[in-house]
Q: What sequence folds into this?
């Protein structure tokens, strides 16, 4: 059967046992998947995109943590590494992680891209793809007038210390500055996959099947011929099976795509599938000020500090922290602050006067994605060099907060460190790291199906025909900055390769 | 946020504790829950609900007599609904964790179940888990803490004490 263009809840339009025919099946509708779907549909190919999560119009977004976190995130926001040390926030739903991200748009640094040594992936070679994305998603620079007080604290610290910093770029139009970006934009101001690319793909004829979980890539010899998928019920439970036939694009994130590849037992001669997971783990540090901060108001991330972010791959380079504001709503902050009970509540009462910034690591640790029956296992044990770099980054966060005027800096170890002067900063590094102490959060999974090893430079699975990868899985290293622009750009590049090849066939 | 049962099982101590907690948990006592509440439970058993409610009272204990309690905000009932959105494996993890909390003292030669302890004893046990040298205990504590805080700070009545102004849009609740 053929599907009409549109965004459909899968169980409303197909029944168990159905076979849907298309030229291209895209698994995932985040940055990479939506871009490939648009490019393929605009080239005249019939496209079906599968999305595990729901399609929720932004008019239904409520800005409430208890409702939006379970709706927009994998495992209802509860996804962690196997040891619980890192909370991994990944999107679920039409638009993927572009629905909840904070709209940061930054090209991958030239030293990182050029360091890969891959044909077609240098900074210069990717520039035309970045330009298309920046144009289509209305990317623009933020400025002084966009700073909320939490961002202003970071900027003030950078200026006091004479460190490197600057304004970020974003993809927003009509922003109401409500401060709820990470719970989805209730004002539909994000120029993201959900608002821009999926509708453009649909306008060009694509069909999206939401609430439909891909379970297996179907092969005929060395040729990918489609995807087996399960229809999900209203509580997300898998039901009947359908088949969607066509060339296949994996774009379900570095976790989801690797897991699907493993379940499908795709050929892996390099033994690299799921083995080099990078996540940009981040640790937050809080400063308590006399002044009112109210960091939940306004654009969450406007300014960055790059003083401790050096793109030098030598083993002794511990300056690998990208420092950005990291304010959270009450549940998020409460979970990050140590302790419980009355002592915890006393800390929470400081909420309006707390500023939070985070050290996000340009990591080298190679985590893994594994599947055990139906269960997903994400393993990630921070290697020694990354532990040093993380602690050094946290020290820098504390130094910035003190320079900006914090009366006390709270470092959220299990036994929290409270610092009031610069001479105490070395206590952070001296404390050391152990899992869950401090808690880490990661939002940028990458690297599980790396270019050059699992896929070729055109994104094609090595040793198979008609199977491409178009998400953060591709990146052979971490990027050291927000990956969404690079994933969109990769989707644009690979979409072009796919269209050219399928037209030739 | 959610503990991993299979992680527990990978450690000898974890396997013993988890298996033992199940066995002990099946053998011991009843946990009466008001009928109206029991009818609303979708994932947790009355016993698991009772243990979780006891944990929530300590995690969300106020610093002032006037603040909303975890019972006022129905934290345990909220978590039951939250768990309904997780897959079977994660739900099983949480249920096993609650058994471990309730009967974990048994394995450390403590006579009392968690729900029978005085509040200061419960606090001591939770602090022991939070600061434990065993990562699996710290993981279990964090999972419980995060779920309880989600249930507590979601409630509009808790926001005034933070000065938090809440959502800018006023839309009907989704559930």
A:
């Amino acid at each position: 059967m053929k599907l009409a263009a549109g965004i459909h809840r899968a169980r409303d339009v197909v029944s168990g046992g159905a076979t849907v025919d298309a030229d291209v099946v895209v698994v995932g509708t985040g940055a990479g998947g939506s871009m490939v779907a648009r490019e393929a549909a605009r080239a005249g190919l019939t496209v079906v995109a599968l999305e595990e999560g729901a399609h929720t119009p932004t008019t239904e977004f409520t800005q409430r943590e208890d409702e939006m976190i379970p709706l927009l995130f994998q495992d209802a926001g509860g996804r962690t590494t196997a040891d619980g040390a890192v909370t991994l926030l990944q999107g679920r739903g039409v638009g993927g992680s572009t629905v909840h991200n904070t709209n940061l748009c930054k090209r991958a640094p030239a030293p990182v891209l050029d360091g890969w040594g891959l044909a077609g992936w240098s900074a210069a070679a990717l520039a035309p793809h970045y330009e298309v994305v920046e144009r289509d998603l209305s990317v623009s620079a933020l400025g002084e007038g966009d700073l909320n007080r939490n961002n202003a604290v970071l900027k003030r610290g950078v200026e006091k210390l004479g460190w490197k910093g600057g304004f970020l770029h974003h993809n927003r139009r009509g922003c109401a500055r409500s401060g709820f970006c990470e719970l989805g934009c209730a004002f539909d101001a994000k120029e993201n996959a959900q608002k821009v690319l999926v509708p453009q793909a649909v306008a060009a004829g694509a069909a999206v099947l939401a609430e439909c979980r891909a379970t297996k890539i179907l092969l005929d010899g060395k040729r990918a011929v489609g995807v087996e998928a399960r229809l999900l019920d209203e509580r997300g439970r898998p039901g009947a099976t359908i088949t969607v036939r066509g060339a296949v694009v994996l774009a379900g994130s570095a976790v989801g795509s690797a897991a699907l590849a493993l379940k499908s037992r795709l050929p892996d001669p390099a033994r690299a599938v799921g083995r080099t997971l990078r996540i940009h783990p981040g640790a937050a540090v809080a400063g308590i000020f006399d002044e009112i901060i109210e960091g939940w108001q306004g654009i969450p991330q406007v300014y960055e500090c790059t003083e401790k972010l050096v793109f030098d791959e030598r083993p002794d380079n511990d300056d690998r922290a990208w420092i950005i504001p990291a304010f959270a709503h009450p549940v998020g902050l409460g979970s990050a602050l140590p302790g419980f009970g009355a002592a915890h509540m006393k800390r929470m009462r400081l909420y309006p006067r707390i500023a939070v910034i985070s050290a996000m690591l340009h990591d080298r640790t190679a985590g893994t994605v594994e599947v055990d029956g139906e269960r997903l296992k994400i393993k990630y044990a921070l290697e020694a060099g990354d532990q040093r770099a993380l602690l050094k980054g946290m020290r820098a966060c504390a130094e910035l907060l003190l320079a900006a005027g914090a009366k006390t800096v709270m470092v959220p170890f299990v036994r929290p460190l409270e610092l009031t002067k610069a001479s105490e900063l070395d206590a952070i590094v001296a404390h050391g790291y152990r899992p869950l102490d401090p808690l880490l959060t990661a939002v940028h999974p990458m690297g599980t199906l790396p270019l050059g090893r699992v896929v070729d430079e055109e994104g094609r699975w090595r040793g198979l025909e008609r199977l491409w990868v178009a998400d953060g899985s591709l990146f052979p290293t971490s990027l050291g900055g927000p990956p969404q622009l690079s994933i969109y750009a990769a989707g644009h590049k690979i979409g072009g390769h796919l269209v050219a090849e399928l037209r030739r066939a | 946020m959610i503990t991993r049962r299979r992680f527990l099982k990978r450690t000898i101590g974890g396997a013993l504790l988890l298996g033992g907690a199940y066995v002990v948990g099946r053998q011991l006592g009843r946990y009466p829950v008001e009928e109206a509440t029991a009818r609303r439970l979708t994932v947790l058993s009355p016993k698991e609900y009772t243990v979780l409610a006891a944990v929530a009272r300590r995690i969300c204990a106020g610093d002032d007599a006037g603040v909303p309690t975890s019972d006022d905000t129905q934290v345990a009932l909220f978590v039951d609904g939250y768990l309904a959105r997780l897959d079977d494996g994660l739900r099983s993890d949480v249920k096993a964790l609650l058994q471990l909390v309730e009967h974990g003292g048994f394995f450390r030669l403590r006579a009392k179940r968690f729900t029978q302890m005085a509040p200061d004893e419960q606090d001591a046990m939770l602090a022991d888990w939070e600061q434990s040298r065993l990562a699996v205990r710290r993981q279990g504590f964090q999972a419980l803490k995060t779920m309880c805080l989600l249930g507590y700070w979601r409630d509009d009545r808790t926001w005034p004490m933070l000065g938090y102004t809440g959502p800018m849009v006023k839309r009907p609740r989704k559930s």
Q: What stands out?
A: Chain B has one domain: 4-154. Chain B touches chain A through 55 residues (CB under 8 Å).
